[in-house]
Amino acid sequence: MSSSTPRDFPATFLFGAATAAYQIEGAAHEDGRTDSIWDAFARVPGAVVGQDNGDVACDHYHRYPQDVQLMADLGLQTYRFSTSWSRVCPDGGAPNQAGLDFYSRLVDELLDHNILPWLTLYHWDLPQALEEKGGWPERDTAYRFLDYATAVHDRLGDRVSSWTTLNEPWCASFLSYIGGEHAPGRQDPTAGHGLVIQELRRDPELSLGITLNLTVADPVDPTDAGDRDAARRIDGQFNRFFLDPIFRGEYPADVLEDVAGLGFERVVQPGDLEIISSPIDMLGVNYYHGELVGAHPPVGQTMSTAAPSVRPKRSPFPAAEGVHWHLRDLPLTAMQWEVQPEGLTRLLVRIQEEYAGPAGVQLAVTENGAAYNDVVAPDGAVHDAERVEFLEAHLAAILDAIDQGVPVRGYFYWSLMDNFEWAWGYDKRFGIVRVDYDTQERTPKDSAIAYTRIIAGRAL
Ligand code: NOJ
After folding, report:
1. Which stretches of 281-415 are assigned E, i.e. beta strand?
2. What is the pLDDT of residues 331-364, one digit of tens each?
3. Fewest CB atoms less than 10 Å from the CB: which of 246, 312, 370, 381?
């Protein structure tokens, strides 16, 4: 940044990066691990671009010592990762010591390097055996999730203090079951979230939370009632449909009306909302971009951000028939996602005011990042100037939110390294570290170098 007065981050602010088990680990059939729904989904012809899968991925399962060294070299203070359910409890059954051993070694390695482990229990990889028994719609799955979480806590609870139940339940429900773009999670797994929070709460040392993908939905024309309703629907389905039950113990009435007829009322049973609203300590916010929506199609724009292999499928927005997405005059990433840092400031301020603040819950940005078509220069470096700009702009947006009174705990860039981007396979690169999938060589990109400099100075 060229600004003459540096902007400092608070002394307690944590700088980190994030990954997820299926996207980086590989070793898909080693040491007792069995299939998850993503192993099975990736075998479906055409489900994933290039018919890629996570069998090897970044081979992190074998290379974790070097990867942790890399994190330390970058200056990361914290690392957000997920444990693989089917590695820890193959087929969703009894705990597998070899699987737990891996995470125990990883946690020790992180702690040895002064990196705070930030653990997520469910990053979309339901054991396939549980899916075959009915998956998330089967209430027993929430109890199997509790068993798995308890096994992970029994082994790591003495060393890991930061626990996240679910990552982006919107994707594990709407995008998967209705949109068909992701492996079937089929139903909102937030009941499982509440059960695990209640159980882990018995350990008073822990910080417990959930990570949601939240957005800012703006109407194309704020004076147009139809456009305003489009924004209300998207805000309802993305944000309030998850925030309200967790923070307020109720589903938003307008969204229930929007989804009437989809059978949702048959799914929620008496007592569920009390469990789902078990108090949390930390809300993880994943923010990539906002949405500009309206009641009329945009003129001269074609918008689809779904992976080409899965088009056309039903919209993952059942409550938003007739809503149209519009593009603004903003730069786009390789995912065709708009770069909209100011949306992050607005989102954090709003979540703090309406939910986190009143509940005494802390906020952290648990994901934010961008895919670009990186090029390796003749000198072997990756000069990803756009990603450097993206990173700096979003860190500045967080400082803006902090200036407005939001006590943000930290930031996790997505992702530490290039990895398996779900339906897009290895086609999209989000990392600040490049992975050469032929050699597994890691190369810090210019964005990693910039991040290291920011972390060292604790200022922008
Ligand atoms: C959200 C997900 O949590 C992560 O797994 C994914 O790779 C990134 N967004 C980028 O799409």
Report:
1. 282-286, 291-294, 324-326, 362-367, 408-414
2. 999 999 999 999 999 999 999 999 999 999 999 9
3. 312
CA 371 from chain centre, in angstroms, equals 15
Among 161, 184, 162, residue whose Cα is nearest residue 173: 184
Q: Is 367 in the pocket of ligand 1 (CB under 6 A)?
A: yes
Strand order in the sheet with 217-219: 217-219, 291-294, 324-326
Q: Where are the alpha helices (DSSP H) in 158-258?
A: 169-170, 190-200, 225-235, 241-248, 253-258
Q: How confident is the model at residue 267 (pLDDT cuts 50, 70, 90)?
A: confident
**pTM of structure:** 0.96
Distance spanning both ends of the chain, measured CA to CA: 7
Read off the amino acid at residue 236: G
Is residue 306 predicted with pLDDT exceeding 70? no
Q: How much is the pLDDT for 178?
A: 59
CA distances from 258 to 185, 222, 236, 261 (A): 21, 21, 9, 9
pLDDT at 299: 84
With residue 81 as reference, give the H or E element that holds it.
strand 78-82
Question: Which of 422, 426, 427, 435 for a ligand 1 pocket mutation test, highest count of atoms within 8 Å of Cβ?
Answer: 422
Q: Are strands 14-18 and 162-167 parallel, antiparallel or unpaired?
A: unpaired
Q: Which amino acid is at 378?
A: P
* Strands 78-82, 116-122: pairing kind: parallel
pLDDT per residue as tens digits for the range 428-443? 999 999 999 999 999 9
C-beta separation of 21 from 87 below 8 A: yes
167 in contact with ligand 1, CB cutoff 6 A: yes
Report pLDDT for 176. 64
Question: pLDDT tens across 8-63, in order?
Answer: 999 999 999 999 999 999 999 999 999 999 999 999 999 999 999 999 999 999 99
| Catalytic-labelled residue, pool 25, 131, 168, 392 | 168
Distance CA 276, CA 281 (A): 14
Strand partners, 362: 282
